[in-house]
Amino acid sequence: MSTRMQPLYVLSGNSERTRGGDAQSSNIRAGKAVASAVRTTLGPRGMDKMLVDSSGNVVVTNDGATILEEMDIEHPAAQMIVEVAQTQEDSVGDGTTTASVLTGELLAYAEDLLDDDLHPTVIVEGYNEAARLAQEAIDEQVLDVELDDDVLASVAESSMTGKGTGDVTADVLAHHVVDAVRAVHDGSGRFDPDDVRILTRTGASSSATELVEGVVIDKERVNDGMPRTVEDAAVAVLTTKLDVREGEADTEYTISSVDQLEAAIEAEDAELRGYADALADAGVDVLFCTKKIADRVQDRLAKHGIVAFESLKSSDARAIARATGAKQLGDVTDLEAADFGHAERVSIRRFGEDELTFVEGGEAAKTVTLLLRGGTEHVVDELERAINDAVDVTVAAIDSGGVVPGAGATEVAIAEYVRSHAGGVEGRKQLAVEAFADAVEAIPRTLATNTGMDPIDAVVELRSTFDREGIAGIISEGRTGTIGDPIEAGVFDPAAVKREAVTAATEAATMIVRIDDVIAAK
Questions:
Q1: Is the pLDDT score of 61 beyond 90?
Q2: 155-189 burial code (b ≥16 CB/10 A, e <16)
Q3: Does 326 score more than 80 pLDDT?
Q4: Which of 503, 455, 522 is nearest to 42 (CA)?
Q5: What is the Cα–Cα distance from 230 to 284, expressed in whole angstroms?
Q6: CA 511, CA 495: separation in Å to the nearest integer?
Q7: Catalytic residue set
Q8: Rounded mean pLDDT of the chain?
Q9: Pick from 178, 211, 85, 100: which is nearest to 390 by CA?
């Protein structure tokens, strides 16, 4: 006679365990709650969120990734939604709110399917099949248009519409973004984000934002006697300090006479003068140094008419070296002309009480800087987030598969495509495929809500217009919206943003649905 052994779980006494339906329900509720937090920010009429941390620091933003990153989220399933937004941001730079909202809707429909006794594995298989169909639908929506400056400006503008841009309209900023990307993108698919730099400065309205063909750094000259402007400049970038060398050994020297003291001082002066003289003899006009420059070296450089900057960030030094063609030098011995870069103009400009340095016309590589202005730190911070997204989506449109209609039109097409193919899916998976189509329609439904339209009426009209004309989106007009053609309205999105949103949302939702046991340490 055998004795049936009871299962034994070796857990800490401080562990908390949730199993089965309770675990699934808890995870789904958490995911839905996080998605709901960013839903009202979607679209051109989306609202902002104010986030205040425990120290009283305030962030005001419309950006989904920033909102989720700043929120103090503890629930592990909710953190997966944050990861969805971060993945979307890292991959294509925009669409974070779309991906988060879609994840929440997929979870909501999965909850209904679980209540109808569908097994989680069936839901996962159905969602994965629907995601494959959605990718086919996105491919069909890619527009056969030339990605000229006007189309790219529309893409950039669409990504910024609804975000805080101060007193300047998104279309003006969009053209700055396109000009910046065009200046550095060689068309080969190799884009270095470091070539489009962003620098913010308060003290003026957002309309004072400008595109600088070169590098702008937040540094002042080390000596006021140095020139404020240098034309046709030979540029040196140094990564070591210009000061008296120190020996590796801890050595003490005994000085017993004034002559010895004077000789030691003269030796130091000669060493320091040698640094400045070597740079001057080599023909350097402007010196950028990542370390300190001794006062006596500064004075000597000023006498030679060399403009010098010290304690640069390594990223600034790399940008200047890349833009001008300068090598980053570890010392000032055996200097050659090939070690230096060239800039058409290096100038100092005053902004309020601060000074910024402009290095323009570098000959080695095209580097540009978007100098963003705003009345307050909150304005320029949000403007920087908007510009970063606009740069990313512009590059994504060029490099990653073109553009699709925006304004929710692509989501309408996805829903109709998936729904029309659901009949070909066998078994109960068909229910999950149909649920996926309904979940995707949450994007245009949310856009309609945020623009002041009735969401149910809007979805009905979107479907009928799509059936009749093959395209339909939510076009924002004044305080409300209408159903129209986003192509005619100039509303475009990169196809890569839609592809990534579908992929990331599906992966996160299916992972959460499959969890039936949560073991957490208290």
A1: no
A2: bbbbbbbbbbbbebebeebbbbbbbbbeebbeeee
A3: yes
A4: 455
A5: 11
A6: 25
A7: 63, 96-97, 389
A8: 84
A9: 178
